[in-house]
Specification:
This protein is α/β, with parallel strands linked by helices and 580 residues long. It is 26% helix and 18% strand. It has 2 domains: 7-98 and 218-317 and 517-577, FAD/NAD(P)-binding domain, CATH 3.50.50.60; 142-150 and 165-207 and 318-436 and 453-508, 2-Layer Sandwich (Glucose Oxidase, domain 3), CATH 3.30.560.10. It has helices at 30-40, 93-96, 106-114, 124-134, 142-147, 176-184, 219-223, 280-290, 296-301, 361-364, 369-377, 391-407, 460-478, 498-508, 560-577; strands at residues 7-8, 20-26, 47-51, 69-70, 83-84, 136-138, 164-166, 201-205, 232-236, 238-245, 251-258, 267-277, 293-294, 308-309, 321-330, 354-359, 416-420, 424-429, 437-439, 450-452, 486-490, 543-545. The strands form 6 sheets. Strands 1, 2, 3, 9, 10, 11, 12 and 22 form an 8-stranded mixed sheet that branches. A 6-stranded antiparallel sheet has the order 8-16-17-18-15-21. 54% of the residues are buried. The structure holds flavin-adenine dinucleotide (FAD).
Amino acid sequence: PHSQHSQHDEDYPSQLLATEYDYIIIGGGTSGLTVGDRLTEGGKHSLLVLEYGYFDTQVNMAPRRMFNITSEMQPNLRNRTFQVGIGCVVGGSSIVNGQVFLRGSKPEYDAWKELGGPNSTWDWNGLLPYFRKGITLSPPDPEISAEFNMSYNSKYYGKDARVYATFSGGRPEPFMKNLYNAMAKMPGMTIPEDSGSGEAGLYWYPISQDGTEFKRSSSRTGHWDGLNRANYEMLTGAKVNKINFNSDKKAISVQFISRNDSTVPPVTTKARKQVILAAGSIHTPQILLQSGIGPAKLLKEYNISVVEDLPGVGSNFQDHSYIPQIAYKWGITPNGSLPKRQDRNPWGKSVPPTLAAMIGMPVVSPEKYEALSKAFENQDPASHLPATYTKDQIEGYKQQQKVYSKLFREKNMQWNEMMMFGPGGSIQNLHPLSRGLVLPPKNDLNAEMTVDYRAATNAIDVDVMVEIIKFMRRYMTESDLKVWAPEELSPGVAVTSDNALKDWARDMINPSVYHPVGTAAKMPREWGGVVDEELAVHGLKDLTIVDASIMPTLIGATTSMTVYACAEKAADIIKAKTGW
Ligand SMILES: Cc1cc2nc3c(=O)[nH]c(=O)nc-3n(C[C@H](O)[C@H](O)[C@H](O)COP(=O)(O)OP(=O)(O)OC[C@H]3O[C@@H](n4cnc5c(N)ncnc54)[C@H](O)[C@@H]3O)c2cc1C
């Protein structure tokens, strides 16, 4: 049964599996399949991927391909609840995501190094080779790129990866030039040479599609389809619920059950070299807790014996937050056709490239950034962190506070994201300072996770959003766009004071752009971290986490490209460590 690249789908044929593999990967999503591909190159080592979802020929968000999770009620956002978007399908969230394919700016990755210790290699320079290894760029059409000022530089990408970024072949509406030119003249605005250069500013950006058929590029198309390796196996519909350890605390096997059939007894498969956890930021903490790794106090409440007391499991949870619409209309209709919000068609269609302004707080708010930075610097973390935080975890947040109060003053920092396609639009706070929790419900460790963004528990997050709204207002009403007499529809010109804007923002903020990170953070143990610089779980042997949960802090960009780069780096670390 292992003579071919096996896709055991739907019928849970666990009897086809071997009892032992060199590597077992938990979760066949974005990071899991990237690492799976790299470790099976050359055919020498056997590897099994255990994936909860199924192979699916359709892509995009649909119930079959998404976990069904609603967040906890958010008291600071008028008690609203929110859909928690994550993929459960072979390819994971890379199959259902919005395909905006960006990376963060240099200071955001350099922060990971500062939060990792003096010998850390997790900074911009340490990750750039892996962005290059992981992603191939299809440049824009030369004529269109010259006409619309699409600067790009292929040196920030590689040539061999089968995960693609493309600007696509469509032609933007001519009016986009006016949006571009007006933004380019905003005080302090910069224009980087490429969206992937690690520099903040105004740029056209690529999407995760191939550059010929304009079909979605995912971890499945890039790291599974067409490989046909006898040593690279996957079982779908398999829900992992435990990792087992020997007395030496070495991860030795993985237990899973059928996703649908509770009558099937659990199966245990052995891993000779490593167990690799790639179940994403929401479910990686669950599998750790089910395995006895997490806050000892909590594990006792679940009657689970403690393998390793790691209070950080499920904490430090972060996501981008946004307001979907700062709405304007033109008082004087511009000539010619106007840009519309583009649906990045996942089934293959060339759509025009899209424009974004990704800017730091000194550009967003030249007046207030210094005061905001000071307020954050002097804040008592205990005033907003969860009551369960230990001394170590509070110390870890203090370290983040030290780094981020500096980054408030950093111009080359992607703190605000404005996707530009018309009058007004959506705005994002890419660096919320509140920290959420992702934990199983009190009475049942095996039930679906509870997701609590704890949005705006740090009130500075709302202050930042207000400054971003004011930046949008300046852009719409004080830039060259004013010749078209823009009229603000919401929040509306009657909403003027900071307090009134804060009030409005609390009604409007959505605490997730489907970019959850941080719940098994790469930070020192004495700062509440869960994995070390080699992404190995503190205190244990041969258990490595490779998904978005390891990011100690958010990057100011959509997350998938960074997940690919981190997984590429993780694969090299695992190879070096396990005598690959
Ligand atoms: C709706 C949506 C829109 C997004 N938009 C964008 C965008 O436009 N651009 C961008 O760059 N990023 C976007 N993202 C985010 C990005 O896709 C994710 O950050 C990234 O894919 C996460 O990768 P991962 O490997 O951490 O997790 P995933 O890719 O989610 O993989 C985790 C895998 O583990 C499996 N799993 C979970 N629990 C178990 C278990 N117990 N046993 C076995 N398997 C399990 C899941 O089924 C899943 O396949 C979006 C995400 C979503 C959901």
